[in-house]
Amino acid sequence: MATIGTRLFTMFKGEFVGRDEFGNRYYREKKVLAGRRERRWVLYGGDDEPSSVPPSWHGWLHHIVAETPAEKPLEVKSWEKPHLPNLTGTSAAYRPPGHILEGGQRDKATGDYEAWRPE
């Protein structure tokens, strides 16, 4: 959740430029002083979780691309998977077999392991 200071700064000095599929809202500074780089920031739609920023908006936030994805969407390659935020610590996180929250029982070793012994 954005602080009251961030919300006030956004209200007075920010210009809304777009929203992503996770509900994050992106802003830029309305007036840029001479010799300074444009300030860009995000107000998160849910938890303040930076991994919820998709790659296209990340590129814009960090001045890698000049146009917002709303102005010029990135080309999606056929091999790309959709962006997922970091799910660690949530009920949707990956839990391998044997994880304590998945019953805590691992399969027995198969006997194909051979310990290394220095000669």
Features:
three-stranded antiparallel sheet, 2 helices, elongated, alpha+beta
Give an overview of the whole structure.
The termini are far apart. This protein is an alpha+beta fold and 119 residues long. The chain is elongated. The longest helix has 10 residues, at 4-13. The model has no long low-confidence stretch (mean pLDDT 88). The protein has one domain (4-102). The protein is built from two helices and three strands, in the order αβββα. It has helices at 4-13, 55-61, and strands spanning 14-19, 25-29, 40-43.
**Percent strand:** 5-15%
Mean pLDDT across the residues is 88
Strand order of the largest sheet: 1-2-3
> Structural class of the secondary structure composition?
alpha+beta
Provide the gyration radius in Å.
Answer: 22 Å
